[in-house]
Amino acid sequence: xxxxxxxxxxxxxxxxxxxxxxxxxxxxxxxxxxxxxxxxxxxxxxxxxxxxxxxxxxxxxxxxxxxxxxxxxxxxxxxxxxxxxxxxxxxxxxxxxxxxxxxxxxxxxxxxxxxxxxxxxxxxxxxxxxxxxxxxxxxxxxxxxxxxxxxxxxxxxxxxxxxxxxxxxxxxxxxxxxxxxxxxxxxxxxxxxxxxxxxxxxxxxxxxxxxxxxxxxxxxxxxxxxxxxxxxxxxxxxxxxxxxxxxxxxxxxxxxxxxxxxxxxxxxxxxxxxxxxxxxxxxxxxxxxxxxxxxxxxxxxx
Length: 302
Ligand SMILES: *Cc1c(COP(=O)(O)O)cnc(C)c1O
What we know:
single chain, D-amino Acid Aminotransferase, Chain A, domain 1, D-amino Acid Aminotransferase, Chain A, domain 2, nine-stranded mixed beta sheet, binds pyridoxal-5'-phosphate
């Protein structure tokens, strides 16, 4: 079979080459695969422009440093690779992931310092963590009994693939008929879910956890939007009971921005439909995509 040149489902950069997403592969001996020893970040492209690329690059570089990984490229070179993936795919709305893996140490050695780290990237069609119906009527989310891995074990502020806790929680929630899951910390407070941060609106204030979770770029965007709309923002521990009793609950993620939650466990939130603060934040989130302060157009000419 001749190699495919159909880039329309997405494009990956692997082993120094650009290939259709379905043909991209990593060596099976890479510790990224064998040990989840990798870091990554995801930036989105909307209407042909990156949203907050600088924030994602900065976080990726920080995550690399935290895990003693060297992608071998600087931020400008990474941007060139990401843009080439997007350009080849022709996608105007894309989910663009950059990954740095440990690679492998010389055969027989277990010294991570000797591993040659590898850089991968790909652009695929925009990923929504909630489908159109869920965005319209709100998600049903379950608070899991699964505890998020301790910050004393794995630094949650640096992106990582230690996702077994999140994935097991997701199985639990889906089996129970919910759409997604929120994990708790050792004190029982709600922390985050698989790829998203969590917020509630109580007494007019917007509340989100401030410790033990990945500091999402979307979370930062929500905090900045809320302040610019004149809303009070509280960064503090969020007990599940406060979340269940909240006027509004929503999630933030690069996979769809601000996503309303209208059912938590078996409790209806607010009036069972996305609340007014959530709706204003959804609107503002998409409006900010046109703001040159956050948006960077991609040159699609090949
Ligand atoms: C990436 C991620 C998020 C969300 O981050 P965004 O930058 O807003 O997309 C939240 N939690 C975890 C565990 C993540 O990996």
